[in-house]
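User: These chains co-purify. Model them together.
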Amino acid sequence: MAHLLGEVEQLILLSILRLGDGAYAVPIRDEIKSHGGVELSRGTIYVTLDRLERKGYIRSWFTDPTPEPGGKARRCFVIESEGVRALRAAHRMVDRLRAGTVLAPKRGGRP
Amino acid sequence: MRTHGLESLALRLIPRSWRDSIARDLEEEYQRTSTRALQATGIGIRLRIARLQDSLTTSTRAERPNRSFFMHDFSRDLRLALRGIVRRPGYSMAIIATLALGIGANTAIFSVFNWILLRPLPAVSHPEELVTVRYQSPKSTGRFFIAYGDYTDLRDGVSGFAGLAGSLPLTITLGIQSQDDGGRVESEMVTTNYFSVLGARPAPGRDFMAAEERLIETLPPAIVSHRLWQRTFGGDVAAVGREINLDGRPFVVVGIAPKGFQGRSLVTLTDVWVPVGAHMSLVPQYGKDTLTSRRGTLFGDSLGRLKSGVSLAQAQQEASAAANASRQFMARGRGGAKSSIGPVLSAGLGHEAETVNRLKGVFNLLMGAVGLVLLLACANAANLLLARTTARRREIAVCQAIGASRLRIIRQHLAEGLVLSAAAGVAGLALAAWLTSLFDGMRLLTYLPAVKGVTLDWRVCAFAITCSLLTGLIFSTAPAVAGSRVDLQSSLKDGVTVSRRGRALLRSGLVTIQVCVSIVLLVSAGLFIRTLQNIRAVDLGMNVEGVSSFVMDPSRFGYSKERSQQLLGELVSRVSQIPGIDATAFTWATPFSMSRSEMGFARRETPKTLVEGPSSAISRGYFAVMKIPLVAGRDFTDAEFGRLNDKSGVIILSESMAKELFPGGGALGSRLLVDYPEKMEVEVVGVVGDVRGRPITAAPEPYAYEPAGQRWPTTWGNIVVRSSLPTAEIAAAIRQVTQSVDRTFTPPLVESFATTIDRVLSEQRLFARLSGVFASVAALLAAIGIYAMMSGAVSERRKEFGIRLALGANGSSVLRLVLRSALMIAAVGLIIGLGAAAALRRVIETRLYGVSGFDPVTIGIAALGMTALTILASLVPAARAARVDPVRSLRVE
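Assistant: Joint model of the two components:
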């Protein structure tokens, strides 16, 4: 059984999947914001990306620096098969748990 | 895009392990955010910010397609310069402060004169269309007031004028509640079109009406200034219609002049205007019709507004033609010498040409002096800059080694100089604002009003900008060129201190200039101070210490001529009874008063040879009050006064007058012919010493004294009193006396002769003071320059001193060595400076008195002072040289 994926981890992995090769922090954050409606802080994104890489779910590399004095390299990410598997497992688990449940508040419950 | 400024600073806060991986992302977000912010602002601002940002963040030429090569390089130069300046705050502040001092002083002097001479007449529309009309005869440079009849001739005869108005300035006493509670104010008696010609509409209230040009028998109208309205009526609209007293006569306020309006003059703040028709109330001595009908009585200044498209020359032509066409134009009254006198138009209002010329002379001289101070500041700054380029030799060598051209390095230096001078310009402007505030309320020269509310307008700012740009170029050029000449090999080697001969020469050259400039300023300050001393020490031929005078003019208060004369006599005797007053006398003119009356005499034997000279009608005891020595004969006796209808009289001559009339002596007892106003014979009963008057520096004029009331009734004049009491006390007592004689009398302005002399000498005092200040600043700057040069030289020659000391020289010989080199440079500066002072002496010689433009004593003192200053300034570096530790100085390499 793989590690359980956290909510933020799932969101970031899904964004990388959507963005394809060469995804980096700025569009990832934009993707989550525009499709998920959640604005994550930059710090959260970077910390999570680091964790995901440590777990082996994603891989990162640096592009060539921009051709100017003081130009900087960009860190890009791509999802590993391990990551895809973890994501699938997490979704399956949710699906299983959800099966046969009605997503509505219970009647007669406390107001 | 590169990160820049704040953003890169923010990046530093992020741990290094992270920084690299996220920097690029942050940059992108920064760009995005700022673009969004830009879109939210207006398009113009957006463009500007974008361009600025572009220039700040891009650096390769390829990225900037539409920027000229020059601009690009220039902005980079500026950026580099700014960085260099910020990196060395102490050094930069020293240069900025030095230059700011020079620029500030220049701007301050300029702004005061700008205020006096150049600013437009306040609250007057299109002042450039205005012209002044006066009389001028080809023989004299003076321009005279014009008569009322001539004014109307010109008004009606010159079609080039959109309007011509007349004005007679009068100083009067204003009363709001009582006779004189408003104090003395400046007023103008004007033609009724005055305000419309100047383009100012009185409001609230009304302008004068055309009917008020003719004699007003009822309550005459007056228009008061906005200033006076605010001050005395609190800006209450009900002031219109109020009655006020002018010289004790009732007037009614009919209007308030526009805010800021001060009449036709820049130098006089006029507060009250009355129409010509009210002349019987203010100048009754002219008589009912004299002022407006008799051509011989001068009315005042005429000021015209030219129609658009009419040039001054065209109007002048028309005016001359109109004057020629007029049968009665002023000139005809004077023996038909028509061609000799005519109306002269001059552009602008505000100042008489004479005052302007006089002021321009003062201005040029002061600007010259203060300009020298700036030059000195430039030399100082250049020296500092030079010291820094020496320190930066390696940096420059590296630049050259990797391919920077020499031009590129010179440009870099110039950019640094310009940035420094721009900063100094800003600081100088602030300094100037402060300095001019010191002048506020001060009367720089007696013929000017007190400086008030000097503003730094666009002219002053333009001056300061030009000043600082020029300064920047001047002070940074030499160091820039010198700094770009770098010997790559030696400079790149660490620790090698090569004494660069060329640069040392340049530096001592700069110090030479400083010494030279300060010696010029010191000498001129010395000359001005000695001039003032000499004038003060001049033997006036009288002793006016403790003497005060005041003018009384009963005829202005409606008294007849005979009664006026009587009243003056009464006043003299009543004033003399005031306790504490030692002596009192009457004189028509004092030696310092502006009014003159020329008297022509001839000896009986040679009735055709006329000798003319100023004269005054005096009372008995005048010579005693003024302590003018009686050389021969006697004073007048009581019986000799007021003998108006006698065909014979008496006279007292001054020594020089007696000498002129009777070169062989024997003046006493001789009879002289006088033919004005009627032929009469006068006997010389006394000879008195010569006295000096205005100007004090002129040789005493031949003078004649006659008893008051001998040739005509004396209706007004000065009363002089001698007392040991303070002037204020005497003034109060005198005021009581005059009020007891007639309540409507204007309280007289009692002034001690000491004050009068101070007033007469205001120009000399201004020169002495300001040149003293300039010279001190110059000497201080020169001392700093010498100090900087010597300490630079000492640190460069450290090794040499070390060797000398190691080889057995003692401290004092090294000290002497350093001092000698400083003195050598100072000596060169001194010699050149003295040469310059000799060459420039023509400029100031006309303003000197009792001292030649090349006075050896003054020059000696200045040279000695400069030498002492040089020794003082180089003593510290010299002592440092003497204390060099040979072991350490030799180990450095």
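Residues 7-94 of chain A form a domain with the Arc Repressor Mutant, subunit A fold (CATH 1.10.10.10).
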